[in-house]
Amino acid sequence: MELFHLSKEEMARLSELVGSEVPLEDMLNARERRVFCQKELLSSGGGSLISFTLNIPGPVKLLSGTPEAFLEGLSRIGAALKKAQYRVLEERLLLANTGTEAFFLVDALPRDVKALLVPIEDGSSLGRLFDMDVLDREGNKISRQELGMPERKCLLCEKPARECARSRAHSVEELTRHVSEILAETFGKDKTYGI
Predict the structure, then answer these.
(1) In this structure, are residues 105 and 49 in contact, taking their beta carbons and an 8 Å threshold?
(2) Could you list the pLDDT tens digit for every one of the 195 residues in the chain?
(3) Domains along the sequence of the chain with CATH
(4) Global confidence as pTM
């Protein structure tokens, strides 16, 4: 099941945005746009909503290799949904300097969809960059803990990611460098940190 196919023009547009710093106002607007899109899709029915983005720290959201990582994430989601025989009712794609985002309204129970996606996030170093949230019809995120699964681990150490994020245990530069290394190893791209 191929969910999205990006045209050459869309890929070129993303490539042009690689390395550009995103103003805080744009990030706040992107968050509002994401919430609006989620509410709009959930109001049209379906059992659950997948909201897919990449975990890219810092003010530069499109690094060398992030467009390819996003496409790989879409491919993995599509393969998992196809294997589980979950029907996608509606799809949306947002491409901007604030990052890439995809939404899938799925005809399946949210807990089942979350259980399907967690192994994709945890199964490889690239998967650690995937942020695959699953929302129920009321817009509530399904957590790993609800399914008895362990929390996400930090990209740099093995502590829970939320603890490191809250305490700012690692600098943006360290995190961005590590993300760039994962992208370079996976896609053979130059290590362009964008900082």
Answers:
(1) yes
(2) 456 677 888 888 888 888 889 999 999 999 999 999 999 999 988 789 999 999 999 999 999 899 999 999 999 999 999 999 999 999 999 888 899 999 999 999 999 999 999 999 999 999 999 999 999 999 999 999 999 999 999 989 989 999 998 999 999 999 999 999 999 999 986 555 443
(3) 8-150 (3.30.70.260)
(4) 0.90
**Sign of the CA dihedral 137, 140, 145, 146?**
negative
